[in-house]
């Protein structure tokens, strides 16, 4: 019986399968995602084409289709036009049918035309990679069987399932449904685990949605983005050039008044600002909600535990029903009313496109003054720290 050109123990085949899938996810996260879809880095033609060739073999993905669908996901996130939102379509459908949703959107020519700009359009793309995407997959099957014998079929099946299951299903599904959040984005994106190793750093999905054009996905000291490690290696050999990174928040304790520098720092780090606001008010909210729970059975027809999360969201993304229930809750507490109103007013500062920079600086200073005179100690501390942003 033919056993293949390479004979390995059982664990050797497992390691080979994992290694091959890691090559694939590296191609997806570096080439398709960070380079093509978001232009966060430039790649030398040699690794760029190597990535493209491997993706043709291991996934059959067409670069224009992938980049277009992902760009549309960001542009229409959590709306009816989002190609794969678990908020809209349900977590079960995105987890189990993520690949089908991808294929359906890939057939939408309007999406390809609107969001597919700047993707490869050379002879190879037009006549091989894009035109005969299935050919690469079949070639990979032949290579796996020649190298490993019948077990090559299993290795090939793992390779073929890796991206549909992990990217189309888990990242697009669980990455907008379960996990923790460093940044209070307008969407529901989450970080699935704090160690972005298994899927190339793509698990750090909330970080990515906060700063989509950043080549680095990790944000906290305990987060590890292996895709960023690969990019740094490419940089060392002159094969990649990073164009964009997430802004770094700096503090100047000597500052006591808001100025243009403060405004720029607040706007650039707005998702981190709202996350810190939520964190600083966490104890205050908990104490007020605990107090309201004692009265809820007699006075309120709302589930205070359920609406607690809504206090940290922009009012614009709440449904009319959610707004009504939230209004019932905060109306019973002057503290919640004040804290929630100030949260919305702070977010409005970076949403006012018609105001001049000088006007926005004044609005930010006025906001700090009101926060410090709110009588809420956590708000006072937050405002004083905000003034020191540089």
Care to describe what's here?
With 390 residues, the chain is mostly helical. The chain has two domains: 10-242, no CATH class; 260-387, no CATH class. 62% of the residues lie in helices and 3% in strands. The chain has 19 helices and four strands. It has helices at 10-37, 45-58, 63-75, 86-89, 91-106, 109-115, 123-129, 133-148, 151-173, 205-210, 226-236, 260-268, 270-280, 282-299, 304-307, 320-330, 334-349, 357-372, 377-387; strands spanning 41-43, 195-196, 224-225, 240-242. The strands form two sheets. Strands 1-4 form a two-stranded antiparallel sheet. Strand 2 (195-196), helix 10 (205-210) and strand 3 (224-225) form a beta-alpha-beta unit. The longest helix is centred in the first third of the chain and has 28 residues, at 10-37.
Spatial sequence of strands, sheet with the most strands: 1-4
Q: Name the shape in a single word.
A: elongated
| Total strands | 4
Report the biggest beta sheet as strand number plus sense, adding barrel if it closes.
2 strands, antiparallel
Strand content: under 5%
* Gap between N and C termini: 70 Å
> What is the number of helical segments per DSSP (H or I, 4+ residues)?
19
Percent helix among the residues?
A: 55-70%
> Structural class given helices, strands, pairing?
mainly alpha
Low-confidence stretches: none
The oligomeric status of these chains comes to single chain
Mean pLDDT: 89
Query: What is the count of structural domains?
Result: 2
The string of secondary-structure elements, in order, is: HEHHHHHHHHEHEHEHHHHHHHH
Rg from Cα? 24 Å
């Amino acid at each position: 019986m033919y056993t293949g050109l390479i004979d390995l123990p059982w664990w050797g085949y497992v390691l080979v399968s994992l290694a091959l899938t890691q090559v694939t996810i590296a191609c997806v996260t570096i080439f398709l995602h960070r380079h093509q879809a978001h232009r966060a880095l430039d790649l030398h033609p040699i690794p760029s084409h190597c990535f493209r060739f491997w993706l043709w073999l291991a996934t059959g993905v067409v670069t224009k289709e992938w980049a277009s669908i992902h760009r549309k996901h960001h542009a229409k996130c959590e709306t009816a036009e989002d190609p794969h939102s678990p908020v809209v379509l349900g977590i079960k459908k995105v987890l189990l049918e993520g690949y089908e949703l991808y294929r359906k959107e890939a057939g939408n020519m309007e999406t390809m035309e609107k969001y597919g700009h700047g993707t490869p359009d050379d002879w190879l793309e037009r006549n091989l990679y894009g035109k005969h995407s299935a050919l690469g997959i079949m070639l990979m099957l032949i290579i796996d069987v020649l190298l490993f014998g019948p077990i090559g079929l299993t290795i090939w099946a793992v390779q073929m399932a890796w991206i549909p299951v992990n990217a189309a299903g888990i990242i697009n599904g669980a990455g907008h449904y379960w996990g923790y959040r460093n940044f209070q984005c307008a969407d529901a994106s989450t970080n699935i685990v704090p160690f972005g190793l298994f899927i190339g750093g793509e698990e750090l999905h909330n970080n990515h949605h906060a700063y989509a054009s950043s080549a680095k996905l990790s944000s906290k000291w305990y987060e590890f983005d292996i895709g960023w490690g690969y990019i740094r290696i490419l940089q060392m050999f002159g094969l990649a050039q990073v164009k964009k990174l997430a802004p770094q928040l700096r503090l100047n304790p000597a500052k006591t008044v808001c100025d243009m520098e403060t405004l720029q720092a607040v706007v650039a780090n707005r998702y981190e600002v709202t996350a810190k606001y939520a964190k600083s008010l966490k104890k205050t909210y908990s104490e007020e909600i605990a107090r309201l729970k004692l009265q809820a059975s007699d006075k309120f027809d709302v589930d205070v535990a359920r609406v607690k999360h809504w206090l940290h969201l922009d009012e614009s993304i709440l449904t009319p029903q959610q707004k009504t229930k939230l209004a019932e809750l905060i109306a019973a507490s002057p503290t919640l009313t004040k804290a929630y109103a100030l949260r919305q007013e702070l977010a409005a500062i970076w949403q006012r496109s018609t105001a001049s920079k000088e006007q926005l600086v004044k609005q930010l200073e006025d906001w700090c003054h009101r926060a410090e005179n709110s009588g809420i100690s956590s708000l006072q501390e937050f405002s004083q720290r905000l003034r020191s942003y540089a």
